[in-house]
Amino acid sequence: MNLPNIITISRLLLTPYIVWLILSESYFLGFIFFLLSGFSDALDGFIAKRFNQQTLLGSYLDPIADKFLICLLYTSDAADE
Description:
about 80 residues; single chain; about 0% strand
């Protein structure tokens, strides 16, 4: 377990909170956390490549976290209608 993996897991755990914010119509706060999620995605990739901390776990977790966020946001929009 290294820093990029911890950042990715944090992003994964933050996703349900972002969806909850959107569903509770706290759009501004949801947007801020969505931006934070995007920034953390770039940051974990940068750290992993720059400091040679790439792992097999990270190579699986990163795209899973991305898809989890997108899928939940998409389906939360459908649930809102």
